[in-house]
Amino acid sequence: MSTLRLRSLTMQYSPKDKALSNVSLDIQAGEVVGLIGPSGAGKSTLIRCVNRLTEPTSGEVLFKGQDLTKLGSRELRQSRRKIAMIFQEYALIERLTVMENVLSGRLGYVPFWRSFLRKYQGNDIQSAYALLDRVGLMEHADKRADALSGGQRQRVGIARALAQQPELLLIDEPTAALDPRTARQVMRLISDICNEHQLPAIINIHDVNLAKQFVDRIIGLKAGEVVFDGKPEELGNDALTRIYGEEDWNSATDSQEMDCQEEVMPVMTGLMAEPA
């Protein structure tokens, strides 16, 4: 059975403004799916409709066989425990430490008084340390979140999401505010973790080259409709034109690769210049 099934999912703001139009998709366990498309195509709306941060106008969101669109508030809160979201703007509590931000991923599982006093059980704390080690931030556990770089903040967001012990990851533009080198590191981390845990993920991503390198499947949206659904190697110039419109895609790809090389070369030069 698919972990997530969308059936005729539609989100309509007005008679003339339809953000999603009859989107139907199946997401399998362990499958990392990249959503690409121009701004306003419906990528973020689709992700937010899955966990009902945005209420769809019609259609079904079947998560492990349960239609989330029909759940009341209490049942929805319980289902959301297993659907973790990683945000573009990190959504960290800046004044709290890295460890406290990661532990906030357990809020759906602890009594209110524990969450209010930030008193977590020993096994939750041990798991949080293990997650910080996995994302390479163990030495930053006691730092305030606002003292971190953008890439480090995104790693905290990943660790916090994993603290929920999710069965589905929803990731909204995780690399939009990052430099090319850090963006690749974050995407590689997400891909590796999903493979390790057979964790399905839907990633809204603007960078087509990153998507082609790090996801298992690409879905192209245009004006709220699916216009491409296939493997990264199937995303050729014709498909890109269907998604984005006419462009010299070979030149665009060459330019992006050159930007990446320019970002990495100073780092490599510095390493080569270091004494043995």
Automatic annotation (TrEMBL):
The keyword Methyltransferase does not apply. It comes from Photobacterium pectinilyticum. The keyword Translocase applies. It is a peripheral membrane protein. Residues 4-248 form the ABC transporter domain. InterPro entries: AAA+_ATPase, ABC_transporter-like_ATP-bd, ABC_transporter-like_CS, ABC_transpr_PhnC, MetN_ABC_transporter-like, P-loop_NTPase. This is Phosphonate ABC transporter ATP-binding protein. Gene3D superfamilies: P-loop containing nucleotide triphosphate hydrolases. GO terms for molecular function: ATP binding. SMART domains: AAA (SM00382).
